[in-house]
Amino acid sequence: SVPSSAFPPFPGSHDGATSLPVKDTSVRFAKAKAIGPIDPIAGPLGKPPKTPAVGGLEGVAVVEAVGSSVKGLAPGDWVLPSAGVGSWQTHAVVDEAKVVKVRNDIPPEYAACLSVSASAALRLLEDFEKLSAGDVIIHNCANGMVGQVLIQLAAARGIKVISVLRAKATLEDLSDHLKSIGSTAVVPEPQLRSHYMQELLADLPAPKIAFDGVGGASGSLIARVMPKGGRMVSFGGASGEPLLLPAELGTKVEGFYLSQWLEKNGTAARQKMVDTLADSVAEGKIKLLLERGSFAKHRVSLNKAFEVMRDRRLVMMF
Q1: What is the DSSP string of 236-287?
Q2: 127-153 tens-digit pLDDT
Q3: At how many degrees (to 10) do helices 258-282 and 145-156 cross?
Q4: What's the Rg (C-alpha) of the chain?
Q5: What is the DSSP string of 77-101?
Q6: DSSP states of 154-193 as a string?
Q7: Residue 63: which of 107, 19, 93 has the closest Cα?
Q8: pLDDT tens, position by position, 189-203
Q9: Omega prior to 227 cis, within 30 of 0
């Protein structure tokens, strides 16, 4: 595992804690220990929670106390909240079924990011196509959290990855980063229909599957790279535009929505998924571009989070 000295300190679970009643089958989040990445509240992310509600879709907390009938958790354990709990709070009393345990020897910032984007990346890689070492996949939205985790999980299995990026000022630096974490090739979106792309594809097997997190023209372009009758999974619509596909391609398109997967597969499957991802972090197989922000200055963090084509995920520290 990664040496603990490489991780930022995570204070003890009882400093400054206030007294809260602890219900049966409940756990209590520790004060000033939760970490919540900034999550968009606009876009195709499902139904908003009933108000009043606590914000924050992802985060990690440390258990301070448990009810008498809680068997799977103990004080000091780290847990990830389910959607609807809200990570932008210092304390919470929740049912045991609303959290999953995560190992506490990885960076807390990383643990906070495993519930959604990293989980979606794992499901994309494992649930749609049987992939083996030497196979090729192509995806857009490569600078996003899903894209970066997908690259690393695939590379660890010997799968070749073509990563597509929309043009931006930091394209060269970002391209170098994606290659360093496992991309076989990084292609600017405008070059998808160029001679360079044709030469690249001539040196590689045809992509077995495409993953589209953008929609619109970007999704259409990566579909054209696929062989006729190729398979594409749509997991997002960052462009806000519909995905348009020429009929002659015969592309088979499927949608993926993590919340539906969680509803169908339940807590045990989610726990196994979190364990797999956390183990990959501990083994140094997943490295994330993160930036810390203070919850005390959450307005600044929120403004940063909505910057166009942001490469680093913001994580708020209480």
Answers
A1: --TT-S-----GGG--EEEE--HHHHHHHHHHHHHHHHHHHHHHHHHTT---
A2: 999 999 999 999 999 988 899 999 999
A3: 60
A4: 20
A5: -EEEEPTTS-SSSS--EEEGGGEEE
A6: HHHTT-EEEEEE---TTHHHHHHHHHHTT-SEEEEGGGGG
A7: 93
A8: 988 888 888 899 899
A9: no
